[in-house]
Every structure is written in structure tokens, then in C-alpha cells.
Design goal:
The protein is an alpha/beta fold and 375 residues long. It is built from 13 helices and 12 strands.
Length: 375
């Protein structure tokens, strides 16, 4: 399982948290089912937003990145998100990324424009997830340069950015510079999940990862581009399956940096929000549906978690075998965590009304393992 990680230029907001909780539930479920999960997540520790913020704050980009990564890991630990087997920073994987780009250049998949290297996307456009017109618009909004003069196709993604403005750079056969965004994930996923020999086209084993995940904002261009690049490198599909978590809004509006309405996990925790209540609130709505965050969302979870804790503190409780089975089934049904939490509400109510015959310890351990709720 490969999940696209953060660009560490700002704190973890609720949209980030909701996405990483989605894949935490996937990870937990697979492990409970006895699956050996090899889980890798990247850190985009070189990117334009990071450089811009560091310059604005008169700070080293690497120091800013390190500080934000530490804050992210702290937020995830507070929310009890199981860490991946490997967090892989782009800077740590630079030699492999450069080698892969040089391979694409040698194999004729690229062209040079003003010192930058672009990938020819045309052979992969049949799999475009949106119309061409929409793709060009989205590409422009999400870091692409469709209007750049001299490009063979507006959607050709940049693979190698020639050094500019004193930004950090690395030496390569194609000049001094840094990689583009999409190739970074292709290489980190393939190298860490398939193995360092993933470029060997004579390799007998599959060179396709099982699951690629992230927010819906990554469907295009990032996941589309990463998949095309991986296919060019390996002549195989990048992933068997893709899973995307929907966006989180605030009080009826899209949550975004430009609107200034981001709600940060660390700020909520500093203000005294119980991290398990916050986790409960984020799991109380479907990952696959756009959702709105409000104080009411959190308040409802405060009450529900209190009832559940009260029931779990009893010596006698309602039967637990059935609810464990039903919660597991709800998670298996496309991560239906809202139903899972409603089932726990019903069990808590039954327990508080005097029903007996269950095992508090058994259910508590299951809730912890399956939903990450340590109550």
C-alpha cells in the first residue's frame, strides 16, 4: 500500500487527517484479517510551496520541512494512526529518482525545453479520468504549466526542473536541478514496494503495487501522471487498485489555505480536544463523500464517546460477539465507519440500560485494533 504523504510547509489540517485516517482503517482491517501489509508513505520535502514559505519566513527550507514533518508525526501519533513501514522523503530517494528520469530520457519518453525535461503523456491519454478541457484547467490549478510555449502537449508533466533562483539542486546527466512532483511518487512506491530491481524489464514477478491511495484532489493530475510514468518505466500498470478520500469543508465552504479557513489538528489538540473524540468525529462520516466540519460534528462525538466510555467502564455489559462481527462487516463494506460507530452507540445504550452477557475487554481491544479508538 502506497499513500501520498505531506508537503511539509504547513501544519496538518483536518483534510489531511481525514485522508490518513481512511488509510489507517484500511491498514488496520487488512492486518486484523491476517494480511501482511507493506505500507509506504512519502514526504515531499522539496517543492515550490515549501520553498515559498521558507523564503517568506526567512528560514531554511530544510529546517522548515523537518519541523513540519515532526509536527505531522506528532499529530498522527495523537490520532493513533499506525505509522507506515517507511516514511520516505524525496531527498532520501533522490539518487533513485534521478536514475529513473535518466532511464526515461534514454528510452525516448522525454524531450528538453529550456533546460527542463518533460514527459510525453500523449500515449497515455486514453486513460485520462476527465475530459481534455477539464484536465488542462485542473492541471493549471494544481502545479502544471499547460500554457508554456514549446511544449508538445499541454498536459506533458515536467520531470526535471533546471535550477533557478538559488533553489536546492542535484547533479545529474541531464543537468543541475530537481525532479518534478509526479515522478517522485512513482519511483518511491516502486523501489520500496516492488524492490530496487523494479526497472529490470525481465523481472518475472509482478511490478504492480496493490493499492495507491490519497485524497480525491490527487486523482488528476498526480495519480494519473504517476501511473503513466510508472508504466513507462516498467511496462506494467502502476497499481491494482486506487482509493481516494473525499475533501473536508468547513461550515459549508471548501477548506483551503487561500480561504484562510483551515482547521489544524495541532491547534485543536492544544485547545484541549480529546484526540479520540477528534478521531471519532472524523470517522463519523463516509470517507467517500464530501463532508463539512463544524463545532456540531465535534460536539456530537464528545457525547457519543462519553457514552461509549461509560459503557466500557462497566463490569457487566451487553453481548459483544454480535457487535464485533457487525462492526467488522461494516468496515469491510467500503469502510462504512459511520455504521460501525452507530452499532457501538446501540451497544453502549444497551449496556447502560442494564443488558449483560458481554466482555468489555474483548470489545475494547477490538475497537482499539479495528477503529484505532483507545477508550
Amino acid at each position: 500500500m502506497y499513500v501520498c504523504g505531506i508537503t511539509p510547509y504547513d501544519a496538518t489540517h483536518l483534510g489531511h487527517a481525514a485522508t490518513y485516517l481512511t488509510f489507517d482503517i484500511v491498514n488496520r482491517y487488512l492486518r486484523l484479517a491476517g494480511t501482511n501489509v507493506d505500507f509506504v508513505e512519502n514526504i515531499t520535502d522539496i517543492d515550490d510551496p515549501l520553498f515559498e514559505r521558507a523564503k517568506r519566513d526567512n528560514q531554511s527550507w530544510s529546517e522548515l520541512g523537518d519541523a513540519q514533518v515532526a509536527l505531522f508525526e506528532s499529530d498522527m501519533a495523537s490520532l493513533r494512526v499506525l505509522p507506515p513501514k517507511n516514511y520516505v522523503a524525496v531527498t532520501e530517494a533522490m539518487a533513485s529518482i534521478i536514475f529513473a528520469i535518466e532511464q526515461l530520457v534514454d528510452d525516448g519518453f522525454t524531450y528538453e525545453l529550456s533546460g527542463n525535461i518533460y514527459f510525453r503523456i500523449t500515449p497515455y491519454l486514453e486513460e485520462l479520468p476527465v475530459s481534455l478541457e477539464s484536465a488542462i484547467k485542473i492541471f493549471s490549478e494544481r502545479g502544471g504549466d499547460p500554457e508554456r510555449a514549446g511544449k508538445e502537449h499541454p498536459l506533458d508533466p515536467i520531470l526535471w526542473i533546471a535550477n533557478k533562483d538559488g533553489e536546492p539542486g542535484w547533479n545529474s546527466k541531464i543537468g543541475f536541478g530537481r525532479p518534478g512532483w509526479h515522478i517522485e511518487c512513482s519511483v518511491i512506491a516502486l523501489e520500496n514496494l516492488i524492490g530496487p530491481d523494479y526497472l529490470d524489464k525481465g523481472l518475472e514477478k509482478s511490478r504492480t503495487i496493490n493499492l495507491q491511495g490519497g485524497g480525491t484532489d490527487l486523482i488528476f493530475p498526480h495519480h494519473f501522471m504517476s501511473a503513466a510514468l510508472a508504466k513507462a518505466l516498467t511496462n506494467n500498470e502502476f497499481a491494482d487498485a486506487y482509493l481516494h478520500s473525499e475533501m473536508v469543508g468547513l461550515d459549508g465552504e471548501k477548506m483551503s489555505k487561500s480561504k484562510g479557513n483551515l482547521v489544524f489538528v495541532s491547534k485543536l489538540l492544544t485547545q484541549g480536544t480529546d484526540p479520540m473524540t477528534l478521531r471519532h468525529a472524523l470517522l463519523s462520516e463516509r470517507y467517500s463523500e464530501e463532508r463539512m466540519w463544524s463545532e456540531e460534528t465535534l460536539s456530537k462525538s464528545v457525547e457519543r464517546v462519553a457514552n461509549l466510555r461509560s459503557a466500557l467502564s462497566r463490569i457487566e455489559c451487553a453481548p459483544t460477539d454480535g457487535v464485533i462481527q457487525l462492526v467488522a462487516q461494516s468496515i469491510a463494506d467500503d469502510l462504512n465507519t459511520p455504521l460501525a460507530l452507530e452499532l457501538l452507540d446501540k451497544w453502549a445504550s444497551d449496556s447502560l440500560n442494564g443488558q449483560g452477557g458481554g466482555s468489555v475487554g474483548e470489545l475494547s481491544r477490538f475497537i482499539d485494533n479495528a477503529l484505532g479508538l483507545a477508550l
